[in-house]
Amino acid sequence: MQLLREPNGEYRNLTPIECERLQGFPDNHTAFGDYDGEVLPMNKTQRYKQCGNAVTVDIVQAIAEKLKPFF
User: Which end of the chain has the smaller Cβ count within 10 Å, N or C?
Assistant: First the structure.
């Protein structure tokens, strides 16, 4: 979990929605999962894992554009 420093100097954890936004996902994109055909709510740990394992498309695109002249 990532910590965010608040203006008052205290730290707090990022919420799953904040993590989704950092990855470019819509809000609550990881809120539900398919468990053998049954759609159920995802727990916070799994939501954080999904966001952490995701590839940020905007970053990949920027890297690809920088590398394009070399190909």
Answer: C
